[in-house]
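Why do we care about 3D structure at all? Because function follows from shape, and shape follows, mostly, from sequence. That is the central idea of this module. The next example makes it concrete: a single protein chain, its amino acid sequence, and then its structure expressed as tokens.
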Amino acid sequence: MDNDLEVERVKKCLEVIEERLGWGSGKEWTGQDFERLSVEIKKGTGVILSVTTLKRLWGKLKYTNVPTTTTLNTLAKFAGYDNWRTFKHQKSLEETPVILPEARSAAKNANKKFLKSKYWLPGLISLLIIGCLVFFSNAEIKAPANHTAYVFRSNKIKMEGVPNSVVFNFNAAAAGTDSVFIAQSWDLNRKVAVSPLEHIHSAIYYNPGYYRAKLIVGNQIVKEHDLMISSGGWLAMVENNGGVPLYFKTKEVLTKNKVEVNEDLLSRYNIPLQPSLPKLRFFNVRDIAGIQNNHFIFETTLKSDFNQGTAACQRVDVLILCKDDVISYRFVPKAV
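And the structure:
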């Protein structure tokens, strides 16, 4: 594979996406824009491309490799093509058009006849006018919201630990007849409708993390702010398919030099290991000021000693949570 050529094709695909979105040049995008893009790509393709991956593609983070096939296919699909192969083929045709001699001659004669006609100018003007009328009749003209007309704040019930209730105080009277929503995080699919006549909305955060809550009017984000839900030290829990997780007691999982959940502990809580593994997660979310995600050292020791049934691969995922990003690593045993 010619990597230089492939990189150029990726750049062209990104340009197509920029034109489609209409957000301006990707060079000027912020972390929030890449969060929105990740959500839009998921809506359009069903595939999640992380904010980190998107930043690397657009040159916000150093990255010299060619993206994976899955990433390329997802980009091409979001740009309006069936897959990456289709995109490359279509772009190759656009870049190197083949014009047959007879077609070239016919086009030349047609141009001469067109220029000699005395009706071409009025006809062109008419087409332009009709085109403009059709465009503006179909376009929904929506003025940007006045962000200063809205209020959006939040208060946590407790300083650390989960579950944690958060009370949102808002004023969205300026929304008029538009719908008003509150989104607890970057995932706009989980937004909740609220009445513009109300001023208080409460929500429960079951997972520690760094969130960006948003007040949305219509399809515009009018206010947003950062919200950190700390874990209060090491926390181990089992997810419950979107419901209330099972939280282990600190003394059950934490010793002097390690955090562990073993088969005996899971058995005491009647959590089966088959046919599907429980979604076991460990957290230590806290404010670590002064560390940048492009210059730090992370050291830890991991071990998964259960390899029965669906746990044969002994997969362990490590996520490093940042203010505007997530760095993800996946570990499995070496192939024998």
